Amino acid sequence: MNDTFIERWWPVPILVHRVMNNKLATIQNEIAAAIPSVMEKDLTNPWKDGVKTDYKYGKFSPTEKGFLHEYNCSTLIQTINEQTNIFLKEHGVEQNRGKFEILNSWINFSDRGDFQYEHYHEVSKYSDAECYLSGAYFYQTNNYDGDLTFISPNMMHRTELDIFTKEPHAVHIPVVGKFLLFPSWLGHRVGLNTTDSQRISISFNVGLFKEYIQ
């Protein structure tokens, strides 16, 4: 019997879900119906990376939750709730134990030359929740208009001292209908769009309140 083994600790959870079939068609139609109204707004570039968005800074309001609620994208809202429950149950949190809710959401438009700097979602500045998840849904992409890369939270992975980690970062190719959910503190970036196609994605934050994490 071998009495030597290697332990690997501190994995970071990222939920990956592919929306398909009728649900995909419904979500796509709901977003498509909203985009003309969104384009009539004064979209901004708050992150200085070229990406245009309807994101708004400030304390989250129970009555103004952003894109998904403003345009009644009910099927994607339902999907976020379903996948959040799966994520929580996987981590030992039973359904109906407490409360979570979508705090805000926004739509992003990325054209040639646009990208997103490495960042994380500073949700705690704007909400009274105790814990946070963030996510993304790809509405329109040609799969080559900028990968979403999650950055290892282990800073040693960025140094020459780490010779043991072959893939310190997790790279996700954008695919229509792909849904991601992850801890809000997890750093991530979006690669440069070098194509002539516009990528459109939906981002959101979910707040977990005290009952969930006791």
Short description, anyone?
This protein has 214 residues and is α+β, with helices and mostly antiparallel strands.
What structural keywords apply?
single chain, 214 residues, alpha+beta, six-stranded antiparallel sheet, four-stranded antiparallel sheet, 4 helices, 10 strands, 21% helix, globular
Describe the structure.
21% of the residues lie in helices and 26% in strands. The protein has helices at residues 21-39, 67-70, 74-90, 210-213, and strands at residues 15-18, 52-53, 100-110, 116-119, 131-140, 148-150, 170-172, 178-183, 188-190, 199-208. Strands 1-8-5-10-3-2 form a six-stranded antiparallel beta sheet. A four-stranded antiparallel beta sheet has the order 4-9-6-7, with no helix packed on it. It is globular. The termini are far apart.
Largest sheet: 6 strands, antiparallel
What is the radius of gyration computed over CA atoms, rounded to a whole number of angstroms?
18 Å
- Total helical segments: 4
The overall average pLDDT, rounded, is 89
Helix content: 10-25%
Give the uncertain stretches in residue-range form.
none
Structural class comes to: alpha+beta
What share of residues are in beta strands? 25-35%
> What strand order characterises the main sheet?
1-8-5-10-3-2
What's the number of extended β-strand segments? Answer: 10
- For the termini, the CA-CA separation is 41 Å
Shape: globular
- Oligomeric state of the chains? single chain
